[in-house]
Amino acid sequence: MKDLFGKALLDFQNGNYSEDITTSTNISDEDVLPIPYLFRDYKDMPRLEQKALKLAKGSVLDVGCGSGSHSIYLQKKGFKVKAIDTSKGAIEVSKQRGVLRADILNILDEAETFDTILLLMNGTGIFQELTQVSKYLSHLKSLLNPNGQILIDSSDIKYMYEDEDGGYWMDMNSSYYGELDYFLSYKGEKEAPMKWLYLDFETLTLACETLGLRCELVFEGAHFDYLAKLS
Fold first, then answer.
1. In this predicted model, what pLDDT tens digit does every residue of 144-179 receive, in sequence order?
2. Which DSSP string corresponds to the chain?
3. Average pLDDT, stretch 75-99?
4. Hey, CA dihedral for 192, 136, 226, 219, is it positive or negative?
5. How remote is the C-alpha of 216 from its chain's centroid?
């Protein structure tokens, strides 16, 4: 991985912002991800993210922290926060912006325990594939203190397969429809494709039940997105 995402964050942080990130998937055309949006304040966050931050309690693990916006907000509110990301550039930016505890880490390597675990901006994406969901959820469960919670968001992207007649053109013999190949490019460079998972709420609930986790729908967005609390 070239860590183009981290490079883009560092460019913005260091005053070298000149263009945005371009993304696409195997079922969607190119789209622009504005880098300033990744540095948003609480007032500019979607209601779903604001709801998640309001629900946070105790010690917090911010998974996939990016530029550290969520962690910074919670720190200012007096929370003890640990921020992790697989992007070296993202962790460097988070530290520069004032996140006190930020580490380059895959969630499966985390061993500390917390009262709240945040996985926002399609938090189920890190699961990569449907077959991996139980493995990740089981590890996340092991990181919870008694009465702890996991706040995670995603979207049901079934709508992306809808045809003009209201039917769906999904191949039922293929993998789960929320499994996508995610492509990112920045300043003429292309990142290695990533596996990325969008998970509908019903499927997430079933996966939680098999692991003894309660899955509660706490917010529904305007475009098939949702926030769930696992406990």
1. 999 999 999 999 999 888 776 666 565 655 789 999
2. ---HHHHHHHHHHTT-----EEEEETTEEEEEE-GGGGG--GGGS-HHHHHHHHH--SSEEEET-TTSHHHHHHHHTT--EEEEES-HHHHHHHHHTT-SSEEE--GGG----EEEEEETTTGGGGG-SGGGHHHHHHHHHHTEEEEEEEEEEEE-GGGGGB-TTS-B---TTSS-TTEEEEEEEETTEEPPPEEEE---HHHHHHHHHHTT--EEEEEE-SSSEEEEEE-
3. 98
4. negative
5. 18
Task: Report the distance separating Cα 84 and Cα 97, nearest Å.
Answer: 14
Residue 82 token pair: 């640990």
